[in-house]
Structure formats: structure tokens, C-alpha cells
Write a structure and sequence with these properties.
Distance between the termini: 18 Å
Radius of gyration: 27 Å
Strand content: 15-25%
Structural class: alpha/beta
Number of helices: 33
Largest sheet: 10 strands, mixed
Shape: globular
Length: 767
């Protein structure tokens, strides 16, 4: 039925290319989107089984690191729900993001063998297997450039269905896996020193081959599908309509090599002239930037590309030459401008700047929150923005309300449906109707009860997993995300120690009890992030075992944070920590999930926090700290950490404790790297925001003592989350970037009469 629907519309297809799809579990999400959850629950119950136990047995598909991969997963859900003909393309990693164990306070990584029992949601598609070429050399012939003497790897696609919400639309996520071709003699691989040679080979080269495999196979697959729509046309396939029928979105720079690959196909295989091919390519691609941190912007060594993809490097050089000729014509004698805007960086080892390649090779470039989009326009990519201002846009991120409300917080979802109806699930802006219930005593009581029930349930989980007695009436203060210096888990840690010191100093003084929950994974090679985890776990050991503190303050490090654990902790959260240094978090999406699930936010004016404050009113968030302008001013003046240490007694006490080994008596110098960083080279200025953060936390505690006012603020926040649905984000991409229109038309199920299906097809044709 869906195939007939696509054929009837001759639809424009959207291809979302992402190195990560952090899908989590699929069973419950599928039941919800198909409207089968109650029927399945009942059927499983009749069999004497427990649906929740069954759901807990499913492995998370952890094919991502954090926000970028989870965003891609939310986008797939929204694209299907909005009736777009969209495909997600990525890599079928044999191992997901590592499983994190905390042993003696340290992060230890274990392999996530998520496929060990197979994956019931995927279907191998060997009929669409494609050859991918590597290495070799380029020969110049009368017919143009020829890439010869290559090594071939086969790319095997695995398809996972992506159902829309209650609309009988099912899209596809296609993940590629590498396979050896038949004439590839694996036996020879095991002779002599070959295995050692492979182990010694540059790791970057192996990683690059995997990434390149998926980019190249994806483009070949897109061309194949386009050609099937042209069957029956006389002569060679015309690509004139290609950008009108195909929209490719690059989720960050990881898929950037798709640009020279499409050029290679057009020029070398389809024999289009360069200018025509380049025009088609630019009109096909759009690029989403996800970070402003310079170290996170990809730069590939020219030497690596020369070996791995010699023809693609030639094409990149030619793209760069045409680009620089244009810059030179516009800015004669400005060598600095040429250097800054080149796709090739010449300093030291020659490298290809992948962000520059994406910008030059795309017709649209977007950031993922208003503040972030402004920063990339006015700072990071200013020269490009000055050249083509119309190319730069903003698309504020969003989250799918199906997973992040219906699935994870059914109590709240049902309560909202009781007062405003169920339509909000596909139109989250309807949540603004909840403003009418801010002063409704019964609704306030019900919202509060749902939160308390969620806290009791999660508290029981924590007690079982961590053997720490949890006070469910304490404030659940939660900070869960990747561990990174810019996300400032250290600032939170300093606050925990400050609270601990206050309790110790005056044990009988009133104190609003807190359970502080911090979780997230550190990249395996990121030493400072691992030390931050070690500090938090050391502080937790001291705080949790001090009889003076009792149940006033508990600190939990949430092991192995992942999608399925987020679904448990987010609905139970009272206070959401979003405390990155202003100007460093592109958007954040965890902030939106907490807001939708009835947590209040303590945060800086960074990323999407800014828009959350606009939507809910700044007075309904706990905003603190430097703004972007203040950070810039401090950079100009020079950040002096020692001055804050000297003038803030509580900060001095905390730092002296860490430095002296109070939290690591067996190894007093354990946290020397952290203290050195904080005093001497803290790019993210933890001390500068310390005082304001502590004062803001006092306001949080004060409001928490007034449950009614707290819950009223919660309701105002939930009512303001409509903007942060990924349905809204995808609608903006569709209409402003991809040139496609979402539809709320429901496709008839396959068991309906043929006439109904054909009638739908006719209706769609008219759209």
C-alpha cells in the first residue's frame, strides 16, 4: 500500500544521512505508533507474562554517542508521522556505544555486543548489495578520469521499519554493513604476518573506510532509486529533475564525502559536464552544523584521502579551485580571506576542512538553535555567511512526544489527554491549553501525584541497583548527558560539596533534602572527562556515608546512561541541570525532554535554553550565569580563576578540600589534573559562574518548599513545550529546505478494499 502511495505521488524523497542513529528500544515505541499497546498488553497478560519484563529484555540499539544520534532517531519518527517519504541512512555497527561500568569509582568500558541474539527489527537486503571501491589510482583518458586498480568491499544493507504515529505510514532506516566479495581470499589473510600488519595499520584509515563505505553506498543507492522512477524514458537517464526529486540532509560533517561522491557519479559515470553536475549537487545537499567547538569540527588528512580515495581528493581539489577563483574575484589581493575560506588547510599537515566542504557543496546550512545559528553566522563561518547570507538558516531541534511522553510517562500523558484531548500527540502546540489549568487545584494535585509516583518507582530502581536508601520526597536533582568539560558537570560537583559543607557546618539548620543524580559516558580517550567521573564518585562516597548528612543529601552516579535509562529517570526528575558555558552548547535536547516531563530547569542562557525561557517566560526557569556577551567580554579581559578563588570563601573551601585529598585520602594528588585545569586553563570558566549558580540553587530550594507554587511553575513549563516537538522541526526542514509538504492524510490499512487505496492515491496525486 505504501509503495502504491509513493508511486502515485511520484514523491520527492528525503534522505537523512547520519553516522549515528541512537534508537534505543523498539518494541514499545512500535506498539504505541501502531495503536496496539493495550491489545498487546492484554494478550501478554492472558499468556501469564508481564509486558514490562518483556520490554526490559530488549537490547538498546546504541548506535550513537548522545544528542546528535538521538536527534536523528526522533527525526525519523517525525518524518514518518508527517507522511514524508524519508529514508535514514547510516552504519550497522556490530558493537554499539560501549557499556559503562563504574568500578572503584572509575569508568570502565565493556563492548556492547548488541547483536549477539540477533535483531528482530531488521531485514537483510542482499539484493541491494553494492560494491564500494577504495585505494587504486586515477588514470586520465580521452573519456575523462578513470579510477582504476581499486580494492572492492561489498556494502550489505539492513532495513529497519520506522512506523509513523497512527497513520499507516512506514518509512525505512537503511544501515550498511561491510562484506568481503567472493573473490576475496580470506585464507590468505591468515598467512604469515598479515594479521599483525592489519593491527599495525593506521586506526584512522580503518575508521575512515567504514565511514566512506556508508557515504558511497548511500549515494549509489539514491541514484539507483531515482533511476527506477525514470524507467521507460528513452535514452540516457536525465538528471535535470534530480534536486527536485531528491533532498539529502547531512547530519553534521560526518557524511561530507557524499558531496564528492555524487560529483564522481555525475561526471565519471553519467558523463555530465562539471558545471551541470556541480549545480545539481549543490541543489541536492543541505548541511546541519551541530557544534561550535573547534576541536569537534572534522579535518581529514590529505595524505589519508590520497591513499584511500584518490579520485574523490581530485574532485575536492577541483571544487576548491572553482570556489577560490570566485573568492579571489570578489576579494582581489585578500590572501587571508582565501586561506580562511579554503577547503584545504595548509598549516602543518595538509587537511580537508569538512565543514567548509559541506557549506560550499550545499544550498542550505543550518544551526540547531537560534543562539547557535547566530554564532555560526557571525563567528564560526562568518566569511561564508557574508558571501551567501541567504544560505544560512536556523532549525531549532525538537524531540518526539511519542517516545518522550507517551512511552516514558504514560501517567502524565493520560492526565494531559483528560483535560485537553488526545490531539496534542501530533500537534504539541496544543499543550498551551494547559495554561487554563495553572490555578486548577485538582489539576495541580494530579500533576504533583504523577510526579511523586514516578519518583517512588525510580527511587525503588535506584535502591535495587545502588543499594542506597532514597528519600522519595527529596528533590530529584538530575544532570545526565555526555561527560564533557563544556557541559560543566564540575560546576554541579562543586555545588554538591558546598551543600555538604553547609550541612556539616550546621547540622540542625533547615535543609531541603536532595538526591543528586549525575550520569553520562566519557569518551574512552578523554582523560579529563574520566577524572570528572572519578571526582563525582569520590564525593558521592564521602557524602553518602557521612552520618551527619543522613538522608538530607544523597549523590548517585547513574551507571551506563542510555536511551532506556533516560526513559526512566526523566519522568522522575524535579530539577533539570543545563549548565553549559554560554555559547558552547549548540542546542541540547535533554533540556526539552525534562521540560515536557514536568521538571524545572536550572540553566545558563545557552543553546535551546534561551528559547525555552522565551516560550515559558524567564521567570519560570532558574536562569543564572554569564550570557554570551559576558563570556566574550571576559575572554577579552582575560579569565583569572584565582581571583574568584580568593574572593569566594565557599569556593576556596571546596577547592582546598579537593586539592588536599579530602575526597581521596589514599591518594591526595588524585585530582591534581582537575585542580590544575580549573586554576590554569579552564576554557569553560567554572569559577566565573560558581557564585551565581549557588545563589540560583538557593532559589530552587526555596520554591521546592512550596509544592503548590512549584507545581504551578511545572504546568507553565509543560504548556510551553509545544515548540520543541521534532514534528515542528521537521515541518520547517520539509518546507524551507527540502521542498516537500507534510501530510496528515492517513493511508488505508492493507485489509481495506482496493477502491479505498486507489481513492487515497488519487487524492495524493492532487496534492
Amino acid at each position: 500500500v505504501y509503495h502504491k502511495y509513493l508511486t502515485a505521488r511520484l514523491v520527492n524523497r528525503v534522505y537523512y544521512l547520519s553516522l549515528e542513529f541512537y534508537m534505543g528500544r523498539t518494541l514499545q515505541n512500535t506498539m504505541i505508533n501502531l495503536g496496539l499497546q493495550n491489545a498487546c498488553d492484554e494478550a501478554i497478560y492472558q499468556l501469564g507474562l508481564d509486558m514490562e519484563e518483556l520490554e526490559e529484555m530488549e537490547e538498546d540499539a546504541g548506535l550513537g554517542n548522545g544528542g546528535l544520534g538521538r536527534l536523528a532517531a526522533c527525526f525519523l519518527d517525525s518524518m514518518a508521522t508527517l507522511g514524508l517519504a524519508a529514508y535514514g541512512y547510516g552504519i550497522r555497527y556490530e558493537y554499539g556505544i560501549f557499556n559503562q561500568k563504574i568500578r572503584d569509582g572509575w569508568q570502565v568500558e565493556e563492548a556492547d555486543d548488541w547483536l549477539r541474539h540477533g535483531n528482530p527489527w531488521e531485514k537483510a537486503r542482499p539484493e541491494y548489495m553494492l560494491p564500494v571501491h577504495f585505494y587504486g589510482r586515477v588514470e586520465e583518458t580521452r573519456d575523462g578520469s578513470k579510477w582504476v586498480d581499486t580494492q572492492v568491499v561489498l556494502a550489505m544493507p539492513y532495513d529497519t521499519p520506522i512506523p509513523g504515529y497512527m497513520n499507516n505510514t512506514v518509512n525505512t532506516m537503511r544501515l550498511w554493513s561491510a562484506r568481503a566479495p567472493n573473490d576475496f581470499n580470506l585464507r590468505d589473510f591468515n598467512v604469515g604476518d598479515y594479521i599483525q600488519a592489519v593491527l599495525d595499520r593506521n586506526l584512522a584509515e580503518n575508521i575512515s573506510r567504514i565511514i566512506v563505505l556508508y557515504r558511497i553506498s548511500t549515494l549509489q543507492d539514491i541514484i539507483r532509486r531515482f533511476k527506477t522512477t525514470k524507467k521507460g524514458s528513452p535514452g540516457r537517464t536525465s538528471f535535470e529533475s534530480f534536486p527536485d526529486k531528491v533532498a539529502v540532509q547531512l547530519n553534521d560533517t560526518h557524511p561530507a564525502m557524499a558531496i564528492p561522491e555524487l560529483m564522481r557519479i555525475f561526471v565519471d559515470i553519467e558523463k555530465l559536464d562539471w558545471d551541470t553536475a556541480w549545480d545539481l549537487t549543490r541543489r541536492t545537499f543541505a548541511y546541519t552544523n551541530h557544534t561550535v567547538l573547534p576541536e569537534a569540527l572534522e579535518r581529514w588528512p590529505v595524505e589519508l584521502l590520497e591513499t584511500l580515495l584518490p579520485r574523490h581528493l581530485q574532485i575536492i581539489y577541483q571544487i576548491n579551485q572553482v570556489h577560490l577563483d570566485r573568492i579571489a574575484a570578489l576579494y582581489p589581493d585578500d590572501m587571508d580571506k582565501l586561506r580562511k575560506m579554503s577547503l584545504i588547510e595548509e598549516d602543518g599537515c595538509k587537511r580537508v576542512n569538512m565543514a567548509h566542504l559541506c557549506i560550499v557543496g550545499s544550498h542550505a546550512v543550518n544551526g540547531v538553535a537560534e543562539i547557535h545559528s547566530n554564532i555560526i553566522k557571525t563567528q564560526v563561518f562568518r566569511d561564508f555567511s557574508d558571501l551567501e547570507p541567504e544560505k544560512f538558516q536556523n532549525k531549532t531541534n525538537g524531540i518526539t512526544p511519542r517516545r518522550w511522553l507517551l512511552l516514558c510517562n504514560p501517567g502524565l500523558a493520560e492526565l494531559i489527554a483528560e483535560v485537553i484531548g488526545e490531539d496534542y500527540v501530533k500537534d504539541l502546540s496544543q499543550l498551551e491549553k494547559l495554561n487554563d489549568f495553572v490555578d486548577d487545584a485538582a489539576f495541580i494535585r494530579d500533576v504533583s501525584k504523577v510526579k511523586q509516583d514516578n519518583k517512588v518507582k525510580f527511587g525503588q530502581y535506584l535502591e535495587k541497583e545502588y543499594r542506597v536508601k532514597i528519600n522519595p520526597s527529596s528533590m530529584f536533582d538530575v544532570h545526565v548527558k555526555r561527560i564533557h568539560e563544556y557541559k560543566r558537570q564540575l560546576l554541579n560537583c562543586l555545588h554538591i560539596i558546598t551543600m555538604y559543607n553547609r550541612i556539616r557546618k550546621n547540622p540542625t539548620a533547615p535543609f531541603v533534602p536532595r538526591t543528586v543524580i549525575i550520569g553520562g559516558k566519557a569518551a574512552p580517550g578523554y582523560h579529563m572527562a574520566k577524572m570528572i567521573i572519578r571526582l563525582i564518585t569520590s564525593v558521592a562516597d564521602v557524602v553518602n556515608n557521612d552520618p551527619v548528612v543522613g538522608n538530607k543529601l544523597k549523590v548517585i552516579y547513574l551507571e551506563n546512561y542510555r536511551v532506556s535509562l533516560a526513559e526512566k529517570v526523566i519522568p522522575a526528575t524535579d530539577l533539570s541541570e543545563q549548565i553549559s558555558t554560554a555559547g558552547t552548547e549548540a542546542s541540547g535536547t535533554g533540556n526539552m525532554k525534562f521540560m515536557l516531563n514536568g521538571a524545572l530547569t536550572i540553566g545558563t542562557m545557552d543553546g535551546a535554553n534561551v528559547e525555552m525561557a522565551e516560550e515559558a517566560g524567564e521567570e519560570n526557569l532558574f536562569i543564572f550565569g554569564m550570557r554570551v556577551e559576558d563570556v566574550a567580554e571576559l575572554d577579552k579581559k582575560g579569565y583569572d580563576a584565582m581571583s574568584y578563588y580568593k574572593k569566594i570563601p565557599e569556593l576556596k573551601q571546596v577547592m582546598d578540600q579537593i586539592t588536599s585529598g579530602f575526597f581521596s585520602p589514599r591518594n591526595p594528588d588524585l585530582f591534581k589534573d582537575i585542580t590544575n585545569m580549573l586554576f590554569k586553563y579552564d576554557r569553560f570558566k567554572v569559577f566565573a559562574d560558581f557564585e551565581d549558580y549557588i545563589k540560583c540553587q538557593e532559589k530552587v530550594s526555596k520554591l521546592y518548599q512550596n509544592p503548590k507554587e512549584w507545581t504551578k511553575m511545572v504546568i507553565r513549563n509543560i504548556a510551553a513545550t509545544g515548540k520543541f516537538s521534532s514534528d515542528r522541526t521537521i515541518t520547517e526542514y520539509a518546507t524551507e529546505v527540502w521542498g516537500v509538504e507534510p501530510t496528515d492524510l492517513k493511508i488505508p490499512p492493507p485489509n481495506e478494499p482496493r477502491e479505498a487505496i486507489e481513492e487515497t492515491a488519487r487524492a495524493l496525486k492532487k496534492m
